[in-house]
Design goal:
- The structure is a single chain.
- The chain has 4 helices and 5 strands; from the N terminus they run E-H-H-H-E-E-H-E-E.
- By secondary structure, it is of the alpha+beta class.
- It has a single domain, classed as Alpha-Beta Plaits (2-Layer Sandwich).
- A hairpin with a 6-residue loop joins strand 4 and strand 5.
- Helix 2 packs antiparallel against helix 4.
- The chain is elongated, with a radius of gyration of 18 Å.
């Protein structure tokens, strides 16, 4: 929902004077949280074929991207300044050919904490996509990454979110 010109947008990372702050989650309940984010990487069909078959000159790019995504998700608070450090109980990176020239990457995350894991899922998907780019750029300089987006989240006070038209997750 887009607010009208007379409505004020409430951004949780700004205090009453507009200063950036880390949100205090100390009073929030510790509950199970999960999220899934996706990233799309577009490249030539020939390069995507080699990527999916594991025959790129740099080796198994998908295995490398999977590890990069998992590691990045675990270190999200080091990438995103106002994120709380979380202990992730599960991270999964999946790859799917979305079209003849499109790779779909999904990062799913879980924790039991006072705050959600959406940013961890987004960071994992982004890092996996960047790693794919790094592994294929020698074969295709025209690679495009995006969109990177939240597909699903559950847990916490705000409940469940499922992107319309997104993959069935959860």
């Amino acid at each position: 929902m887009v607010p009208s010109k007379t409505e004020k947008i409430n951004l949780s990372h700004l205090d009453g004077t507009g200063q950036v702050r880390m949100v205090d989650v100390s009073a929030k309940a510790v509950t199970p949280r999960e999220a899934c984010a996706s990233a799309t990487v577009r490249m030539t069909g020939e390069v995507l074929d080699a990527l999916m078959q594991g025959t790129l000159p740099k080796g198994d790019a998908l295995a490398t991207a999977r590890v990069a995504g998992i590691l990045a998700a675990k270190r999200t608070s080091e990438w995103i300044p106002l994120c709380h450090p979380l202990v992730l109980t599960w991270v999964r990176i999946e790859f799917e050919r979305g079209s003849p020239q499109q790779l779909l990457i999904r990062c799913s995350t879980k924790t039991v904490a006072q705050t959600g894991v959406e940013m961890e899922a987004m960071t994992g998907a982004a890092a996996a996509a960047l790693t794919v780019y790094d592994m294929v750029k020698g074969a295709d300089r025209s690679v495009v990454i995006g969109p990177i987006q939240l597909e699903y989240k559950a847990g916490g006070k705000s409940g469940t979110y499922q992107r319309d038209g997104g993959p069935s997750v959860g």
